[in-house]
Amino acid sequence: MVKAIITKRLIKYDSFILAGIYTIGHIFIAMTCTLLITGTSLDLAALDALIEPIINGFWFYFLHKFWKRYAKTNSTLSA
């Protein structure tokens, strides 16, 4: 019973959870790349690494929500 409730809640928020994990990973990757490629200071690399991945995180969230709706509509039509 508890497992079913947890699973139901995770599915309800799966777009948000995926977007959050994606954004956190993207921030660390972007900061590392900026440091290694440009040799800039850590504070500038961190600033650069925060802005662009956060925008991408929102994009990923809305894309995932759209995709789930699109896939659900198409699976309903196919049945």
Rg of Cα set: 18 Å
The N- and C-terminal alpha carbons lie at a distance of 30 Å
Main sheet record: none
State mean pLDDT (0 to 100 scale). Answer: 83
The general outline is elongated
Number of helices: 3
How do the helices and strands follow one another from N- to C-terminus? HHH
pLDDT under 50 segments (min length 5)? none
Number of strands: 0
| Helical fraction | over 70%
Please state the structural category: mainly alpha
* Strand percent estimate: under 5%
Supply the key terms:
elongated; 79 residues; mainly alpha; 92% helix
Account of the 3D structure:
This protein is mainly α and 79 residues long. The chain is built from three helices and no strands. It has helices at residues 2-12, 14-38, 42-78. Helix 2 (14-38) packs antiparallel against helix 3. The longest helix has 37 residues, at 42-78. The radius of gyration is 18 Å and the shape is elongated.
Question: Summed up, what is this model?
Answer:
The chain has 79 residues and is mainly alpha-helical. It contains three helices and no strands.
